[in-house]
Specification:
Radius of gyration of chain A: 23 Å
Oligomer: homodimer
CATH topology of the largest domain in chain A: Aminopeptidase
Strand content of chain A: 15-25%
Structural class of chain A: alpha+beta
Largest interface: A-B, 100 and 101 residues
Number of helices of chain A: 14
Strand order of the largest sheet of chain A: 1-2-6-3-7-18
Shape of chain A: globular
CATH superfamily of the largest domain in chain A: Zn peptidases
CATH class of the largest domain in chain A: Alpha Beta
Chain lengths: 453, 453
């Protein structure tokens, strides 16, 4: 497919950029029209690539795009999953270019990349599947039925998709679910994800006095909700760096020494890792390596906090409220619904009596594991090995694609995570980018996967 | 002066409203022009009220208004201090009316009040002085020289005023400094402030990784700066509710039992206090009453906190930075500059090695005490007693007017705090208001003060 890419390179950029220009931010209601624009554009791209049909389906939330090409019902069927919604671009002032006006420019190491929100996650990655499909169709090499399912709510936890999948089980029937929405360890150490963490995401609100107060008149006599929220958050970890929510680890499966040894084969350079992050020391659960802490162990992070006066200058206020957004990454067997309940109960239980505490669940999903002995895994491994010149290692991804556990459950098929993102892409952060080399090697690997499976 | 108020009531409202409509928010650079508009309007009002002169003076920051009427250099001179700048109005969504479009409407108890940012603090209160002066001039009763000094930077700690006062010492020479920028205990318990707390205000920044990270890919392995900031803030108090900054209390003067008994005579209804605030329990330094905690004891409050994603929905991010604004209210003898230094040193010392911490001083000022045996205090006490029908009690104010300690030092005169605000006015908060009854009784009390001093 290398030559096909070379010939069509500029058209590919134009097509991908047309998706990246649409600010399809699912977290913000104001972008609702953009979700439809983006879904419409995907239908066009699928049809142009050779799909028999491509349609927008309404859900309880943002629309789903479904397209397919059925060449022979007796052949194996691939279901491609991707999402066209993106994370909010904030903080905007930290972007070097407009997040919704993609540009191609070299990164710090001189490698050309596309810079835009969604360049990798997930518009760039789902685009690879459309182009690999186009190549197979246009060259007469397609030997599978292919179905595309693109949703618009992944970044907010796919609240509507499970019900929609249940309602369209037959239409979605397939033998494997291909997903490119993850990273590999590095360009030199390609890897295939064999598991993802689940997620529980909640918002907490601590209310002290019923109105903002003058900190001079009341300071010292009235509990400050920011202070209390900080004290409560500081109690969420024990001295060993473990999450101090009772029951949090009850269902976590301890990996065997052999399994841990296998995972430890993934290369990891502590100094390089710290240098990339600009930190002097790491922090995490006692008794586990950094890769284990992000791969096989659950964790808790405060993703956002706000309260009181946060503008310019010095406003002296003892505020009425303080807020935080808290995410917990879960490992297989931990149920998101149960962890959300345990957290809410615990957080309320540690609230001192001079404040009121509210906990609101925002989104969640379970983690899952993927069998690495399957023919699909082996085909993917062979394809990637040929394109990269190195056999990929199996790895456990720290992120979450909440809906994939549902796909596994409802459709009874395993996902295969062919992620070509790299940590350097800084998805979910300012200046998201995607290396052209990864974009093109991803397309090539995917096309070869169809050959070998 | 009662009849004069009745006759001129509507004109008074129009004049005060013309000040309140100008959004003279000193914390925000965008309001720079409004500072000049407001200063200009004050000059007009002073001249109309009978001043010989009223002019705008440039400072290193916002302009100062100075006006005066010298009837006989051998008579005693009153210097009136006030400030025309106001606190930011945020959060705007909590205002029931436009903060910069004043209206007269009854409060929850049916008493008419003016609703606007600055209705009390300090435009409403400084206006009382202009009108009392106008009354004395127009009725030929004035027996003092009167000077007015209105500054535009009180809410940001008066950074420019001390230098300006030093440069205009002779012009400002006076025998007393009248200030109406504080509250009294209640309408039924009028009080005169005999001391104010000082202030140290700082901003802190905790930096973890050098960019926002995907909380799935790094969560569990990298220190989260919000978590660390919360842990650091939670260490700022000890188990007895004392500020845990070493040296913080070193210079605090312990009041004698007799002094504490005298202060305890101020009426205080715990249930009413808690009900007004909507809290079940109070919190503060062990061994002191709520009034002592806000009057004679220093304290620390987090006035604002922010970090990570604070918008709508669920963004999973492990942020690079977390911030907080911290104010400390100081009692006499605690030096603001020293406390700021102690805090900065301590806060950096408790930073764990996986983050970087920056501390930026924002504003500060020392506290001060006022002698209650003076002839001016006695004249004010008599004036208020006549207007309210009850003798006012001496009280210690919890707030800070940073510049008054400087006035005391540079000009060598004592301030007299004739505050007619009430806690119900919720200055610095949404829906600031000022009761008409307090506005008018304030004017009357001030006019009588001139009679008795």
């Amino acid at each position: 497919m290398k030559r096909y890419i070379e010939t069509n390179r500029n058209r590919f950029f134009e097509e991908l950029f047309s998706l990246l220009r649409i600010p399809s931010v699912s977290a913000k209601a104001e972008h609702k029209p953009d979700m439809y624009f983006c879904a419409q554009r995907l239908c066009e791209l699928l049809l142009e690539a050779g799909a028999d049909s491509a349609d927008i389906y309404e859900t309880a939330g943002n629309p789903v795009v479904f397209g397919q090409k059925i060449i022979d019902p007796s052949l194996r069927t691939v279901l491609v999953y991707g999402h066209y919604d993106v994370q909010p671009a904030e903080p905007l002032e930290k972007w070097r270019t407009d997040p919704f006006e993609p540009v191609i420019a070299p990164d710090a190491t001189g490698q050309d990349a596309i810079w835009a929100r969604g360049a990798n996650d997930d518009k760039g990655q789902l685009f690879m599947h459309i182009k690999a499909f186009e190549y197979l169709v246009s060259t007469g090499r397609l030997r599978h039925n292919v179905k595309f399912l693109f949703e618009g709510e992944e970044e907010i936890g796919s609240p509507s998709l499970p019900a929609w999948i249940k309602a369209h089980k037959k239409m979605l029937a397939a033998d494997i679910c291909l997903v490119s929405d993850t990273t590999m360890i590095s360009e030199k150490v390609p890897s295939i994800n064999c598991g993802m963490r689940g997620l529980s995401y909640l918002e907490v609100k601590v209310t002290g006095p019923n109105k903002d107060l003058h900190s001079g008149h009341y300071g010292g006599a009235v509990a400050n909700p920011i202070q209390v929220l900080c004290e409560m958050i500081s109690q969420l970890f024990d001295a060993d760096g473990r999450v101090a929510v009772p029951g949090f680890y009850d269902k976590v499966v301890e990996l065997s020494r052999a399994d841990r040894r296998m995972l430890a084969r993934a290369p990891f350079d502590l100094k390089e890792y710290k240098d990339f992050l600009g930190v002097r020391e790491l922090r995490g659960e006692k008794g586990y390596t950094p890769l284990e802490r992000t791969g096989i162990r659950p964790c808790l992070d405060v993703c956002g906090i706000w309260g009181g006066y946060t503008g310019e200058g010095a406003k002296t206020v003892l505020p009425s409220e303080a807020h935080a957004k808290i995410s917990m990454r879960l490992v297989p067997n931990q149920l998101s619904s149960e962890i959300t309940r345990l957290f809410a109960k615990h957080f309320k239980s540690i609230a001192p009596k001079y404040v009121k505490v509210e906990v609101t669940p925002c989104e969640g999903g379970d983690g899952f594991l993927i069998p690495i002995g399957s023919s699909a895994y082996k085909a993917a491994s062979r394809a990637i090995a040929e394109v990269y010149g190195i056999e990929p290692v199996p790895a456990r991804g720290g992120g979450s694609i909440a809906v994939l556990a549902e796909v596994q459950k409802i459709l009874g098929i395993d996902p295969l995570l062919l992620g070509f993102g790299l940590e350097r892409d800084t998805i979910h952060s300012p200046n998201e980018s995607y290396l052209l080399s990864q974009l093109f090697r991803g397309m090539e690997s995917i096309a070869r996967f169809y050959d070998y499976w």
